[in-house]
Amino acid sequence: MKDDGKFRESIVFSPLSEPIVVQAGPGSGKTTLLIERLKYIIEKRQKNYLGTGCITYTNAAKDEIISRLEKEGVQLPSNLFIGTIHSFLLDFVIKPYSHFFNNEDIPFKLASFGFARNYKNDIATMLKRPPYLINNSTLEAFESLNRDKNGNPFCYRGKIPSDVAKWWKSLLKRDGYIDQQDVVYLSYLILNKYEHIRDALSVRFPYMLVDEYQDVTYFQERLFLLLNHSTFFCVGDSNQSVFGFTGAQPENFKSKWENESYKTYKLSNNFRSAKHIIHLANNKTDIEQVEAGINGTSDQKVVFFKDVEQVSEVIKLFHRIRDNVECDEDYNPYIILARQNKYIRVISNLIKNQDIEPNMFFQKLKKEHYRRYKILYNSLIAILFRRESDFKQAVERIEEAFSYLLFNEHPNFVDLASIGYDKFMWKKLQVYTLQYLDGLVLSETTVAELFEEMKDFISNLSKDLFGIPIGNKLRMLNYNWKNQVKASKGTTISQLVDQLEIESNLSNSEGNVISIHNAKGQEAECVLVLAESKSQLDEWLALNNETEEARVGYVAFSRARKLLCVWAPLIEEEDYAHLDENVTFLDNSYISMKETV
Ligand SMILES: Nc1ncnc2c1ncn2[C@@H]1O[C@H](COP(=O)(O)OP(=O)(O)OP(=O)(O)O)[C@@H](O)[C@H]1O
């Protein structure tokens, strides 16, 4: 059937009881279609108490869907869930039922980001390495450990041997925690074992919509299959499956596609990109997309930078070229994409064109004592938000500081009853503390003084307001500052807050430089993709999408609406001559030419 408005309406307005899978390339409007279907479900669902779950891959995608619905004036019903699979399962399975699988008979707590840092020495011992060799990427690998199909702990990044992986998961369990990956695995175990729980969940959510289905993991798929009272609407693109290192498998989407109980649809239009971008991407896959949006008619070719060795020159060239592109205000004007975080930091600094010293005080405290770092950092960010009159965010930051101070926990998991508090008292203490921080003369208060004063203030406040002594819970605020004695007495709060303010402004402007993985689902008028080597670019441009690296290139190129520029060091024009119908090669002389003119 021709991919036109009528065809799309027929998908959106299909009977609510029909399970549907939509497969289509980038920019074809999959997410847009999913939102239309969601609107239709909200309007048509038969009983108001029936819920709808809309599973997004990231929180950014969740925000985007909510804002699009709100913009269109859709009233969001209270039983509508929009968010990641992890938050869905945390709310509806882990918090209410995970105590069934915990020897302590209490729900598991979520190990928050940065959690592995607390176990650095144990990790070093297990890996038989000195602690200074345990870097962030090793810690990240521990935090993202998943399971193989048999449920055994498994590192899809290939960094952690299986015996160490097993040790890590049992350590978490012993301490009452689960990590992000096990939110899915444990939820699967719970739903698989207890029929009444899975039935209750499935009946509560008879409509489930899932975006980016190609990145669903094995146990996520198994879990979805258990919800047999729910009707699924799934959209995805196997060619954009780039999260193999988390255990995601495009095969899950393929098997859904081949499952005869689903009605399947393919979309062929691309509403996002200029035609040469679409044709370049078509070269890589068996999905043939057709230019159908307003950008489709543009003759702007894809630009490859050749003979440009310095990334700073490439960025200059990119900005020069995009100066000539008329951008639509409704879209992000540009993004710069790279593969590795390390590289992204270098580029961010280049773009800012200024060397920002990372704040040594925070860096050191983070290494020396992570929990105290969390307390200080959050308190100061709260001051910053207060300055900007963002009271809500300020109190949230104080709450995080308090949660680490009193419980060494993320705010979601604090046990207020253990200190005789209720939620109202907890908030009240935070609001008063925020007022107190706001009243300090920041330029005259050192970090060491802040800790001492805060301890007295909070402990007196708790006694005066509620008659509850919590002084012994505040020992994190007693600190001898180890290797930072001098700095803690010589650094004022205003110096640190000012530094944080600069960093937060910078991170806003840095928002345009992102990793390819984080750019999934996003689009911008102009896109610069930085390959880090010639071999990487070769793989990105190869005529297949079999390898994950090849698919990473596909995702990167297809973010662009009007202009796509690509750079790889030592790129050779003759290697890519077969693309010349869609590609122009430019070198540094473009800049000098423009300057002369
Ligand atoms: N039916 C349509 N008519 C015109 N424009 C559309 C239509 N559907 C989507 N678009 C526009 O096309 C662009 C891409 O849409 P969307 O993000 O939904 O695509 P997608 O298939 O989810 O992309 P990706 O796979 O890259 O995440 C957006 O700017 C969107 O507004």
What would your notes on this structure say?
It holds the Pfam family UvrD-helicase. It comes from Amphibacillus marinus. By secondary structure, the chain is an alpha/beta fold. The protein folds into 4 domains: 172 residues, P-loop containing nucleotide triphosphate hydrolases (Rossmann fold), CATH 3.40.50.300; 67 residues; 131 residues, no CATH class; 146 residues, no CATH class. The protein has 24 helices and 18 strands. The strands form 5 sheets. Strands 3-2-8-9-1-10 form a 6-stranded parallel β-sheet, with helices on both faces. Strand 5 and strand 6 form a beta hairpin. Helix 4 crosses helix 8 and helix 16 crosses helix 21. The radius of gyration is 26 Å and the shape is globular. It starts with a helix and ends with a helix. The mean pLDDT is 90. Adenosine-5'-triphosphate binds next to helix 2.
Number of strands: 18
The end-to-end distance, rounded to whole angstroms, is 52 Å
Approximate strand percentage: 5-15%
Multimer state: single chain
Q: What does the largest sheet look like?
A: 6 strands, parallel
Structural class: alpha/beta
Rounded average pLDDT: 90
Enzyme class: isomerase
Pfam families: UvrD-helicase (PF00580), UvrD_C (PF13361)
Binding site for ATP: 24-31
GO biological process, one term: recombinational repair
